[in-house]
Amino acid sequence: MPVSARERVLEAVEGLIAEGGLRAVNIASVAAAAGVSRQTVYAQFGTREEMISESIAVMSSRALGEIIEHLESIEDPGEYVVELLVAGRAAFRDTPALAVLLFPDTDNPIFDSEVLAGAVPFAEAFVGPLFERAPHLQERRADVMETLLRFGLSVLTLDSDLIRTDEDLRGYLNRVLRPALGLSSV
Protein backbone atom coordinates (compact mmCIF):
# COMPACT_ATOMS: atom_id res chain seq x y z
CA MET A 1 0.00 0.00 0.00
CA PRO A 2 1.52 3.35 -1.00
CA VAL A 3 2.39 5.84 1.72
CA SER A 4 0.30 9.02 1.60
CA ALA A 5 1.81 12.49 1.53
CA ARG A 6 0.46 13.04 5.05
CA GLU A 7 2.23 9.92 6.33
CA ARG A 8 5.48 10.93 4.59
CA VAL A 9 5.25 14.37 6.22
CA LEU A 10 4.67 12.86 9.67
CA GLU A 11 7.60 10.47 9.20
CA ALA A 12 9.77 13.40 8.11
CA VAL A 13 8.77 15.40 11.20
CA GLU A 14 9.67 12.46 13.45
CA GLY A 15 13.04 12.08 11.75
CA LEU A 16 13.84 15.77 11.98
CA ILE A 17 12.87 15.90 15.66
CA ALA A 18 15.04 12.87 16.39
CA GLU A 19 18.00 14.43 14.58
CA GLY A 20 17.78 18.05 15.68
CA GLY A 21 14.93 18.57 18.11
CA LEU A 22 11.93 20.76 17.46
CA ARG A 23 14.16 23.58 16.24
CA ALA A 24 14.93 21.47 13.15
CA VAL A 25 11.27 21.34 12.14
CA ASN A 26 9.95 23.96 9.76
CA ILE A 27 7.76 23.72 6.68
CA ALA A 28 10.69 23.86 4.24
CA SER A 29 12.79 21.22 6.05
CA VAL A 30 9.80 18.90 6.37
CA ALA A 31 8.86 19.29 2.71
CA ALA A 32 12.42 18.50 1.65
CA ALA A 33 12.69 15.48 3.96
CA ALA A 34 9.28 14.13 2.89
CA GLY A 35 9.91 14.74 -0.80
CA VAL A 36 6.84 16.93 -1.21
CA SER A 37 6.23 20.59 -1.90
CA ARG A 38 5.78 23.19 0.82
CA GLN A 39 2.23 23.68 -0.49
CA THR A 40 1.53 19.99 0.13
CA VAL A 41 2.70 20.36 3.73
CA TYR A 42 0.48 23.42 4.21
CA ALA A 43 -2.45 21.58 2.63
CA GLN A 44 -2.04 18.67 5.07
CA PHE A 45 -1.31 20.80 8.15
CA GLY A 46 -2.25 24.42 8.56
CA THR A 47 0.68 25.33 10.79
CA ARG A 48 4.00 24.06 12.02
CA GLU A 49 2.49 23.59 15.47
CA GLU A 50 -0.36 21.42 14.12
CA MET A 51 2.14 19.31 12.20
CA ILE A 52 4.38 18.82 15.26
CA SER A 53 1.41 18.14 17.52
CA GLU A 54 0.04 15.43 15.24
CA SER A 55 3.47 13.88 14.81
CA ILE A 56 3.97 13.70 18.56
CA ALA A 57 0.45 12.26 18.95
CA VAL A 58 1.21 9.54 16.38
CA MET A 59 4.57 8.70 17.99
CA SER A 60 3.06 8.69 21.47
CA SER A 61 0.12 6.55 20.42
CA ARG A 62 2.43 4.01 18.83
CA ALA A 63 4.70 3.87 21.89
CA LEU A 64 1.79 3.74 24.34
CA GLY A 65 0.17 0.91 22.41
CA GLU A 66 3.37 -1.11 22.67
CA ILE A 67 3.63 -0.44 26.41
CA ILE A 68 0.01 -1.38 27.06
CA GLU A 69 0.34 -4.56 25.01
CA HIS A 70 3.45 -5.50 26.98
CA LEU A 71 1.67 -4.97 30.32
CA GLU A 72 -1.69 -6.62 29.58
CA SER A 73 -0.79 -10.12 30.73
CA ILE A 74 1.11 -9.15 33.88
CA GLU A 75 -0.85 -9.88 37.04
CA ASP A 76 1.79 -9.50 39.76
CA PRO A 77 1.76 -5.84 40.95
CA GLY A 78 5.52 -5.71 41.54
CA GLU A 79 6.29 -7.15 38.13
CA TYR A 80 3.77 -4.71 36.61
CA VAL A 81 5.58 -1.71 38.13
CA VAL A 82 8.98 -2.95 37.03
CA GLU A 83 7.86 -3.78 33.49
CA LEU A 84 6.00 -0.46 33.16
CA LEU A 85 9.27 1.42 33.62
CA VAL A 86 11.33 -1.01 31.53
CA ALA A 87 8.79 -0.84 28.67
CA GLY A 88 8.56 2.96 28.96
CA ARG A 89 12.30 3.35 28.64
CA ALA A 90 12.37 0.92 25.72
CA ALA A 91 9.66 2.94 23.95
CA PHE A 92 11.65 6.16 24.36
CA ARG A 93 14.83 4.48 23.17
CA ASP A 94 12.99 3.06 20.14
CA THR A 95 11.48 6.48 19.35
CA PRO A 96 14.19 9.07 20.07
CA ALA A 97 11.96 11.90 18.88
CA LEU A 98 9.80 11.38 21.99
CA ALA A 99 12.66 12.65 24.14
CA VAL A 100 11.65 16.20 23.22
CA LEU A 101 8.70 15.74 25.54
CA LEU A 102 11.06 15.58 28.51
CA PHE A 103 13.56 18.35 27.97
CA PRO A 104 12.81 22.09 28.03
CA ASP A 105 15.86 23.05 25.97
CA THR A 106 14.56 21.33 22.84
CA ASP A 107 12.21 24.25 22.11
CA ASN A 108 9.28 22.09 23.15
CA PRO A 109 6.09 24.17 23.02
CA ILE A 110 4.28 21.85 25.44
CA PHE A 111 6.95 21.76 28.16
CA ASP A 112 6.27 23.65 31.36
CA SER A 113 7.63 23.73 34.88
CA GLU A 114 4.63 21.77 36.15
CA VAL A 115 5.49 18.64 34.16
CA LEU A 116 4.73 16.26 37.06
CA ALA A 117 1.31 17.77 37.72
CA GLY A 118 0.48 17.59 34.04
CA ALA A 119 1.73 14.02 33.82
CA VAL A 120 -0.61 12.63 36.50
CA PRO A 121 -3.72 12.27 34.30
CA PHE A 122 -1.60 10.73 31.54
CA ALA A 123 0.12 8.34 33.96
CA GLU A 124 -3.20 7.30 35.45
CA ALA A 125 -3.89 5.22 32.33
CA PHE A 126 -0.81 3.11 33.08
CA VAL A 127 -0.70 3.17 36.84
CA GLY A 128 -4.44 2.67 37.36
CA PRO A 129 -4.23 -1.07 36.66
CA LEU A 130 -1.59 -1.36 39.39
CA PHE A 131 -4.22 -0.48 42.02
CA GLU A 132 -6.46 -3.27 40.70
CA ARG A 133 -3.54 -5.68 41.11
CA ALA A 134 -2.54 -4.29 44.53
CA PRO A 135 -5.61 -2.76 46.23
CA HIS A 136 -3.62 -2.17 49.43
CA LEU A 137 -1.77 0.64 47.60
CA GLN A 138 -5.01 2.58 47.07
CA GLU A 139 -4.72 4.40 50.41
CA ARG A 140 -1.33 5.75 49.26
CA ARG A 141 -2.40 6.42 45.67
CA ALA A 142 -0.99 9.95 45.46
CA ASP A 143 2.39 8.88 46.89
CA VAL A 144 2.55 5.87 44.59
CA MET A 145 1.76 8.04 41.54
CA GLU A 146 4.38 10.61 42.56
CA THR A 147 7.00 7.91 43.16
CA LEU A 148 6.34 6.20 39.83
CA LEU A 149 6.37 9.48 37.91
CA ARG A 150 9.67 10.51 39.48
CA PHE A 151 11.22 7.09 38.96
CA GLY A 152 9.85 7.00 35.41
CA LEU A 153 11.24 10.40 34.48
CA SER A 154 14.63 9.53 35.93
CA VAL A 155 14.69 6.19 34.08
CA LEU A 156 13.92 8.00 30.82
CA THR A 157 16.35 10.87 31.26
CA LEU A 158 19.25 9.51 33.31
CA ASP A 159 21.38 6.57 32.31
CA SER A 160 24.23 4.85 34.08
CA ASP A 161 26.29 1.69 33.87
CA LEU A 162 24.15 0.23 36.67
CA ILE A 163 20.96 0.26 34.54
CA ARG A 164 22.20 0.33 30.93
CA THR A 165 20.40 -2.84 29.77
CA ASP A 166 16.76 -3.78 30.31
CA GLU A 167 17.86 -6.69 32.50
CA ASP A 168 20.03 -4.35 34.61
CA LEU A 169 17.09 -1.95 34.98
CA ARG A 170 14.76 -4.81 35.95
CA GLY A 171 17.18 -5.93 38.65
CA TYR A 172 17.56 -2.41 40.03
CA LEU A 173 13.80 -1.79 40.09
CA ASN A 174 13.19 -5.15 41.75
CA ARG A 175 15.77 -4.34 44.44
CA VAL A 176 14.79 -0.71 45.02
CA LEU A 177 11.35 0.25 43.71
CA ARG A 178 9.31 -2.81 44.67
CA PRO A 179 10.30 -2.57 48.35
CA ALA A 180 9.83 1.22 48.32
CA LEU A 181 6.23 0.73 47.21
CA GLY A 182 5.60 -2.13 49.63
CA LEU A 183 5.42 -4.78 46.91
CA SER A 184 6.98 -8.17 47.55
CA SER A 185 10.40 -8.76 46.04
CA VAL A 186 11.14 -11.55 43.64
Quick synopsis:
By secondary structure, this protein is mainly alpha-helical. Helices cover 67% and strands 0% of the residues. α1 packs across α4, α4 runs antiparallel to α5 and α5 crosses α6.
CATH architecture type: Orthogonal Bundle
Arithmetic mean of pLDDT: 86
Give the amount of beta strand, in percent. Answer: under 5%
What is the ordering of alpha helices and beta strands? Answer: HHHHHHHH
Q: And the CATH topology?
A: Tetracycline Repressor, domain 2
- CATH C-level: Mainly Alpha
Q: Pick out the low-confidence regions.
A: none
Largest sheet: none
Q: What level of helicity do the residues show?
A: 55-70%
Structural class: mainly alpha
Q: What would CATH call the homologous superfamily?
A: Tetracycline Repressor, domain 2
Number of strands: 0
**Can you tell me the number of structural domains?**
1
Q: Distance between the terminal alpha carbons, to the nearest Å? A: 46 Å
Q: What is the C-alpha radius of gyration, as a whole number of Å?
A: 19 Å
The total count of helices amounts to: 8
Organism: Sporichthya brevicatena
InterPro entries: Homeodomain-like_sf, HTH-type_TetR-like_transc_reg, HTH_TetR
Keywords: DNA-binding
Protein name: TetR/AcrR family transcriptional regulator
